[in-house]
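Subject — a protein and its fold
Encoding — discrete vocabulary of local shapes:
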Amino acid sequence: MASLTVEALEDLAADPSPRRRRRPRVWRALILFAAAAYFILPIFAALRFAFQNDSNHFSLYAVRAIPSQVGFTAAFVLSLKLAFSTLVLTLLLMVPTTIYVHLRLPRMRRVLEFITILPIVIPPIVLILGVLRAAPLWLKSSPYLLSLVYVVLSMPFVYRSIDSGLSAIDLRTLVEASRSLGGNWVKTMWRVVMPNLRAGLLSASVLTLALVLGEFTMASLDLWTTLPVWIAQFQQVDAHIATAVAMLSLVGTWLLITVIVSLDRSESRRSRRRMGQ
């Protein structure tokens, strides 16, 4: 009897009941379905509305009419300029600072984490109103004031992406090895640290571009017509065209992120192949 009991227990351990195996899968499927519906249904409704005319029939007039709308090209170009300038300023500021803290001031990492989390705690409307009151007149008249504010707004995401990339490598050993072989600081940063930090830099770039291309509050209060501001204003003129622009900007952002992530994966595969050879 004891042997039969032991054999039965072994069979149950080797082959669990179907209920135990199916329950987690059912819950996972339900959660994934609910999450997909939460994101996909609003996008589907917006796409359906964008490809309809005033008679609720399928039409492409909204997409065809986008380039000829007043102010669209200027708003699109301004958003691209702000995104590029913000990305450059953010990387130039955060990459050397984070590397220096990791190498020379490791005890300051907690202080830097606290400082970079403040833009999440402070509402954007409070931040831009304070900047507008303190900024000089010549800077207020330039749209690149938004780039400076966007640098602050993107710090929490950029710092954590770079910090995670640096934590994944032995930074001190790599720097000391490069310096002992005769490399100066510029070559060490460019040829040793940056290639190992590629994933973190790409993540920081993706998050910064997505933030700038979708930001509305600061641009609106600073009285500059970026693409999100133009969409909100043009909604009163033609809702179909405004919705079509919003959907195209969403798809364009997704494609940009996909291209950046694909470049990172392809480069990682090449590096693995080289190491395998």
